[in-house]
Amino acid sequence: MWIRALGDYSDTVDTDELPALRQLVREALGAPVRRIGRFIQLALIGAGRCMGEQALPAQTAVYLGSGRGDLDVTLEVVNPLFREGLPPKPLSFVNTVSNATNFYIAKHFGLAGRSNFVCNRFFAFEAALELAMQDIRLGYTDSVLVGSVDLVTASLHQHRARLELPPEHPVAEGSHWLWLVGGAQPEDAVAEVQLVRQFDDLRALLGHLHALNLSSERSWLLPGNFVDAASIAEIQTTTGLTPVHLDAREPGYYDSRAGGAISAFLSQPDGDTLLHINRETDGERFCLMQVRRISRVS
Amino acid sequence: MNEDREQLKAALKELVIEECDKDVEPDEITDDEVLIGGPLDLDSLDALQICMAVQHKYGVRIEAGPQARKALRSINALSDTILEHRPG
Q1: Is A298 within a domain?
Q2: Both A140 and A113 in a single domain?
Q3: Which of B49, B55, B62 is the best substitution to test chain A (most A C-beta atoms within 10 A)?
């Protein structure tokens, strides 16, 4: 499967006054969008940056993953309801439907294809991408806009508590998107997604990696948010690869940070292949995302 | 009383802009312009949003139907409704 475009937004949030996104939406889409909350704004910024001026085929699907979903709008509904005994405001209530975000994306790009929202705490981006690849393979679609979004809610104190992060731990929000297509390699493809696969445990993952016989010079091993040091050490021993450690404090924590891995890999010159490895921390499963850079000879 | 009414109308213009997510300044909304289906291009969902916001902020419940149609005719009408029904 081929990546024809990528786009990202991520930013540290270090005050309870969350950064305004309205202008960024306008810049990314070329027009303001009314009656949307922060989560949808983030999604539109990332998707808009991904596609720029390019048009998508009308039957393109939209698959969005998130670790927590739209916490902001959930709080807008739950707080008045349970704390004040008041009904929620209608615009907040309407946007609690997870697919509301996909609706706004589909509306902006004029899409009428499939739409899926995947909530997965540990493999948010990977799960959406895995599903997109499966549906392309099965012939349900041949073009998918795949993304992940996670946001920060005020106050930061409550947000960190909700995410079970220590006080002062840097937090961020991010929106990462790519345009994935099936079939023959398009001329403008920037990368090939070779594999997104979940493994039952570390042993199964190591068996797979061992069989790949990876070149340490040409592979970029990037551990995700949730991989522990002991597992990384075992992966390193099995593959002979040295993990690349992006600064975990930059831009800060959000669940679906894996969504930015492909852009991070492609934006630097080292390696032909990205191996992004993530794990769940309340179970044994691991997830591998394998992406090949497509180099252009000028 | 008159001063209260002017302050309320100014606050309501800000409420409408905030709740309906409109890119206009408060002084661009005149006191007697039609709110729903008027120059602001507000629809029934905006109307419901305004009613809920008024209930949250002023404790005044605007019933659907004729009362809502009357109250949402303009900023003048909305402020009259609130002043008439505000608790306390």
Answers
A1: no
A2: yes
A3: B49
Residue of B22, B23, B45 lying closest to A91 (CB–CB): B45
Write the pLDDT tens digit of every residue in A35-73. Answer: 999 999 999 999 999 999 899 999 999 999 999 999 999
The Cβ of residue A26 has, within 10 Å, a number of other Cβ atoms equal to 16
List the one residue out of A35, A42, A47 whose CA is nearest residue A18: A42
CATH of the domain at A125: 3.40.47.10
Give yes or no: residues A93 and A198 share one domain.
Answer: no
Do the Cβ atoms of B53 and A89 come within 8 Å? Answer: yes
What value of ipTM does the predicted structure carry?
A: 0.77
Q: What is the CATH number of the domain that holds B27?
A: 1.10.1200.10
In terms of domains, do A95 and A240 share one? no
Q: Are residues A34 and A153 in the same domain?
A: yes
State the nearest Cα–Cα gap between B2 and chain A, in angstroms.
Answer: 30
Supply the DSSP string of A105-167, one letter for each residue.
HHHHHT--S-EEEEE-SSSHHHHHHHHHHHHHHTTS-SEEEEEEEE---S-HHHHHHHTTPPT
Q: Read off the pLDDT of each residue in A259-288 and give the average, rounded to a whole number.
A: 92
Domain hosting residue B68, numbered range:
2-85
Nearest CA-CA distance, residue A48 and chain B, Å: 20
User: CB of B50 within 8 Å of any CB in chain A?
Assistant: no
- Say yes or no to pLDDT of A203 above 80: yes
**Taking the model in full, what pTM does it have?**
0.91
Alpha helices in B28-74 (DSSP H): 44-58, 66-71
Best residue in B42, B56, B62 for a mutation probing chain A (most A CBs within 10 Å): B56
Task: Tell me if B20 and A90 make a contact (CB, 8 A cut-off).
Answer: no
Domain of A272, in residue numbers = 191-293
Indicate the number of domains in chain B: 1
Residue of B nearest to A31 (CA): B23
**Percentage with pLDDT > 90 across chain B:** 74
Indicate if the pLDDT at residue B1 is higher than 90. Answer: no
* In a shared domain, residues A73 and A132: yes
Q: Is residue A116 part of a domain?
A: yes
Distance CA B26, CA B19 (A): 13
